[in-house]
Amino acid sequence: MVKAVPYLSAVQQALANFRAPTHAAPTPALSLSSSVSTTPSEDTTLDEDDDNDCLVNPHMPPASKQVFTTPHTEFGHCANEAYRYVSKHDYTKPFQEHAVEKPPFYIYFTIYLSTLILYVLAHSRDFFGKRFAKSHFTYFMPHNGYAPLNSDFDSIFLRRVKRRMDDCYNQPITGVPGRTFLVLDRYSPDYNHTQIYTGGMTRMLNISSYNYLAFSQGRGSWADAVEESVRRYGVSSCGTHLDTGSNDLHASAEALIAHFLGTEDALICSIGFATNSTFIPELVEKGSLIISDELNHTSMRVGIRQSGAEVRIFKHNNMSSLESLLREVISQGQPKTHRAWKKILVIVEGLYSMEGTLVNLPRIVELKQKYKFYLYIDEAHSIGSLGSRGRGVTDYFNIPPGSIDVLMGTFSKGFGAAGGYISGPKSLIDALRLRSHSGPYAEAIAPSVIAQVVVSMASIMGVSPAQQPTKSTPFPSLGNSLVAPKESAEELLGMVPASMLPMWMNLPPSLADGSEARTRMRRLAFNCRYLHSGLTKLGFIVSGHPSSPIVPLLIFSPGKLPMFVRMMRARPIPIAVAVVAYPATSLFMGRARLCPSASHTKEDIDTVLRACDEVGSILDMKHGSCERWGIDEVCERAVELVHSV
Q1: DSSP 3-state assignment of 470?
Q2: Cα 280 from Cα 556, distance rounded (Å)
Q3: Numbered ranges of CATH 3.40.640.10 in the chain
């Protein structure tokens, strides 16, 4: 605890200064939520008690005029303005379609060989087990004439591979999923058939949650707004949207979402997965065509299958493949009859959750103007986390949102809540309210969750005291140029009028002027680019876009996935990482999906890079062909590295 001495003395000095009468000030309706503010709070890092001082207290003690209102374990203190970056596309450079680098041949050879040995032994054990120990194999054999739920391949993978690494999945945590969290300690005496909890907890550095802007906090204005909404509206809507489930808070939220995105109208859904799976079937019908990216999320695939429309697939984020497919389907028309399609709908993701790649939106908009199709974009991971104003891929590329027909997104990532939304023309949204299954059958989203969404979104936009005039001119055409138009998305989207927020929701100055959210977005952008480029310079093969909050670290070999998780967890500063394997990815493309957030400090990313450097060297994971730097050089030249990507 020697390192904590200057920190504790600085906090005590700050508390003494702010108890003076000259600093007296009226308390706002909702408490300040910034990690560093000028208001003392009894909920400071002094309340944190943990053996690992590096995770509990900041690396650099705060200044004498800075007092924490959010624990350092939830939102890291980082006062250095050099560790900031604005997330936006540089139109002076062409859009780079990311191609994943392939590892050496011996990596594939060892994967194929080990997989072959695994399945030969597994099949042999099952063959003899069914005949000599049937009681132990009834869980995957047909029962009473019913077919097995899984194929032989999937059954063997689940029992012989995934079960052996179940300790790396479903890690039970307690507390806020912020910069750190507490993981419940457990062990298994029978190769993960059962898990036994020891009763202890370990604090770990969290690099695996979707809490990109760290709005999911236990203290501050977000938590205060949720608490007040429970007092006013209760804990549940207790009804569907078309019955008695909707209230004034839902109406305010839908209007705020439309204003936030720059569209005519929006509607909300209580589950993000259901937003795609229940609304897509209502957008098309028999005689229509859906063109889907090959790596679209499962929720979109479920909705596409239920629509009854014809489906064609194009290569992931490959605009040449998309244009070639568009020419073919338009010229040939419907199968057999060759009649023109009633509707062509192209469905893509703004940010792909497994690959970390960004959609080539400028090129897709050009193709849309040329071939006259409808465009549906899933912004589950990009909304709030991309763009200089947090509006997602349209903001990142500075493209007017009116160029997109349907914008979909979720609240469970950038906004720290739950549920999803659909946004677009008012006529379309009005039809979806009545025709989609979510409207008449699904329970409306809980008021407390909507309160979290409203406060988060309003803090990103900033609140103006009076209604601002909006421009009614239509969005200009992009033509054949990749350069954004003069009347850009940034000029069309302004602050939210105070009249659009509930009367009881009074935000403190740091949230009302948008400064708190802007700081978080810039911290997130810096952390994402630093982690991505740092891993690349260390020699790893990293997928995705440098500005993506999802950083897939390719490990390839299924056997190395659990070792990577366990070695990161066993370090002096434990790090919680999430790995992804088959069937979420191909069998030989296993990866660790690292998710930095605005709550992480530069020192936290340094810690992750140093851990990956050591573990990666032991597990033979460095197969990238990029010019390599040492770990000390990467940490020292972090700012230069971020701006040079």
Answers
A1: coil
A2: 34
A3: 221-465+494-504
| Average model confidence (pLDDT) across the chain | 84
Query: 575: part of which helix (H) or strand (E)?
Result: strand 575-576
At the topology level, CATH places domain 221-465+494-504 in Aspartate Aminotransferase; domain 2 (3.40.640)
Distance CA 16, CA 23 (A): 11
End-to-end, the C-alpha distance of the chain in Å comes to: 38
The two structure tokens encoding residue 173:
């945590």
The C-alpha atoms of residue 235 and residue 230 are separated, in whole angstroms, by: 6
Q: How far apart are CA 308 and CA 288, in angstroms?
A: 8
As a whole number of angstroms, the distance between CA 458 and CA 255 comes to: 12
Query: d(Cα 101, Cα 163) in Å, to the nearest integer?
Result: 30
Q: How does strand 344-349 pair with strand 575-576?
A: unpaired
Q: What is d(CA 373, CA 557) in angstroms, rounded to the nearest whole number? A: 41
Q: Which CATH architecture has domain 81-213+517-645?
A: Alpha-Beta Complex (3.90)
In this structure, are residues 378 and 297 in contact, taking their beta carbons and an 8 Å threshold? yes
Which structure tokens are listed for 628? Answer: 């390599």
Structure tokens at 283: 């957008």
Which two three-digit tokens encode residue 195? Answer: 């898990």
Provide the H-helix boundaries in 234-280.
248-261, 272-279
Choose from 36-40, 211-215, 246-250 the range with maximum mean pLDDT: 211-215
> Which has the closest alpha carbon to 522: 80, 82, 84?
84
Query: CB-based burial of residue 317 (10 Å sphere; 0-12 exposed, 13-18 middle, 19+ buried)?
Result: buried
- In the chain, CATH 3.90.1150.10 sits at 81-213+517-645
Tokens of 401: 């949102």
Residue 358 CA from chain centroid, whole number: 13
The answer to whether residues 126 and 141 touch, using CB atoms and an 8 Å cutoff, is no
Q: Which DSSP category does 623 fall into?
A: -
E strand or H helix at 406, and its extent? strand 406-410
Query: How far apart are the C-alpha atoms of 514 and 494, rounded to whole Å?
Result: 11
Confidence class for position 473, pLDDT limits 50, 70, 90: very low
Q: What are phi and psi of 238, to 5 degrees?
A: 55, 40
In the block, tokens 């590295």 appear at: 641
Segment 68-108, tens digit of pLDDT: 667 888 998 888 899 999 999 988 887 877 778 889 999 99
Tell me 166's DSSP state.
Answer: G
Instruction: Answer yes or no: is pLDDT of 43 > 50.
Output: no
| pLDDT score recorded for residue 144 | 63
Sheet bearing 289-293, strands edge to edge: 265-269, 420-424, 406-410, 374-378, 344-349, 289-293, 310-314
Please indicate, yes or no, whether the overall pTM of this predicted structure exceeds 0.70: yes
Output helix, strand, coil percentages for the chain, rounded to the nearest 5. 40, 15, 45
